[in-house]
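Per-residue structure
===
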Amino acid sequence: VVAMAECGSHAFLAAEVAGYDVGEQTLALRLYPRLRADELLTADRGFYSFDAWRLAAGTGAALLWRAPTGLRLPVVRVCPDGTYVSVVIDPNIRGKRRERILQDARDGVELDPEQAFLVRVIEYDVPDRAGNGSGELIGLMTTILEAAAARADELADTYHLRWEQETGHDQLKTHLRGPGRLLRSRSPELVRQEIWAWLIVHYALAKLITEAAEAVDADPDRVSFTRALRVARRTVTGTAGFS
């Protein structure tokens, strides 16, 4: 399962399900067309590819992804906040064609989105992340090119919030699902049906938690998922209906 989740509510907004032989990047490609222009999508470096970025950015949504190790990000121009604009070029383009595209980017010539796109790069250090006394350099790429639209520290903080999805994973796989069962002994159709049932019920609980939090002007994180789950289990007596 690969899913897009909302940081604030932990609700899974879209998902793709397939067998173990289908990779995460393949499933993610099916999700990007469902992005909306008023959304910002964060993603780890494992999801990046030129085609994935082009597909997701083409929806009009803002992107904030960690740059993969080894990706060349030449400086096109430096922004006032210390970030810089770079150009990412289709890896199939090499030699003089690549150099010409880079020069066009520096000259302000509009780029062909099928060949290259501009990104803004944010780099920051996380001290002692591994616990060995050394720091780790984090490099982010975003479609938000102007520093005035989003400061470097705001974008770094926003990327950190990506880990909110781990809370959603824990709620779904540990608390909602309960003790594990051997799904291998069941038909693929039944397994898929049960996965979608978990996702739908989790969404319903996330919606109820968010509505309860909004009623008292609180962060949904302040509402216990396990307590909400117990209340729902005690009070649902028939077939529940929700959008």
About this structure: Helices lie at 24-31, 50-57, 95-107, 152-160, 164-176, 188-215, 225-235. The mean pLDDT is 90.
